[in-house]
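Lecture 7, part 2: worked example. A protein chain together with pyridoxal-5'-phosphate.
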Amino acid sequence: MKSILHQPLDRVGTDSVKWDGLERWFHVKSDVLPLWVADIDIRTAPSISEALAARAATGEFGYTMFAKEAQEAVSSWYGRRHGLDITPEHVLFSSGVVPGLTHIVEALTKEGDGIVIQSPVYPPFHELVTGLKRVVRDAPLKQVDGKYEMDFDALEHAMRQAKLFLLCSPHNPVGRVWTESELARVVELARTYDVIIVADEIHADLTYPSQHHTAINRLDDRVITVSAPSKAFNIAGLFASYIICPDDAWRKRIIQVQNKHHVLPTPFANTAIIAAYTDVRAERWLDQLTAELEEQATYVVERLNAELPRLTCFMPEASYLLWIDFAALGLEPEARKKWLHEEVRVFLSPGVPFGASASTFERLNFGTSRTIVDEALGRIKTHSDGKAFV
Ligand SMILES: Cc1ncc(COP(=O)(O)O)c(C=O)c1O
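Predicted complex, written out as structure tokens:
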């Protein structure tokens, strides 16, 4: 079978944030390799492109409602892939996962309320909470034997002062797929302190074949889930996401906020969700992609451990993001940025916005061809070899 990941796709000149955004937004030279924003350098599943082309051919692009068929598609996907029984009417459209999380926080909490997050975590988690004038209650993850774990003492302390918990599952950037027993403890704590759990499961469908993702809604039927086919099928630019909210009163409040913000799908969002979640060809394509991503993760981690042992990295259990500690280089974040962009010529996501403990880290997106991965790792090695490690 032809590889999905290793077929080159030239994205330059497509207004790609990842590729064209470097020069336009950051004034970085065009020979810098972009291994930052979280999409992959591949075409989506051919069956999804076909469905979108057929929708485009209708020529009908008026204002569109969330299709019943799309709600049913989400329900059948979660049933088949995650063993969850979802009522289709509980699925709301969202024009992105971050907007979905933001609208939920706006609907179910008020200014000054505490919102739990677990840093290091995807920066919008911090930003949406402070942007809405809620208070971040951080329960930082801890490193145990080369792996990140939840700190349940910190989590309990944070939940005591919070109304809502933004859970990242699987976790960006540390790559953990939380186990059922970890999630069961989260549920228990949330019940004790009456905290609403909102689970961002956008990376769940990229869980590696060797791992198992537990949809936390299976352990507590009031959990609100926000997700999308966007990461799994590499269609983030279509903004086709959704919120699953089983609680009637909460769902009503979320809908009120969504109406205030004019949340409506594009016709292509409906088509993409239906094509991704109901066509067996897309499902087979995804199974191949996750296997290739696990192989790529293993390759990158093994190479880094062998060739750059003083950089610490954490083997992900899902998706295509690698969290690397550059502390041994002894560079401050600004100096490291200059070194990466001007000498090494790779663009990574800097750690600082992910949380207080992350200033020595960079996040590397290996969702690209082996050729580009090899070139990037080679550049990092060449330019690290001469550096005085502390
Ligand atoms: C955990 C997580 N949530 C949300 C998003 C972004 O989702 P969206 O673009 O749909 O807002 C990302 C993108 O990287 C992510 O990693």
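Residues 280-307 form the longest helix (28 residues). The pocket of pyridoxal-5'-phosphate is lined by residues 38, 96-98, 122, 168, 172, 200, 202, 228, 230, 236, 241 (CB under 6 Å). Keep this in mind for problem set question 3.
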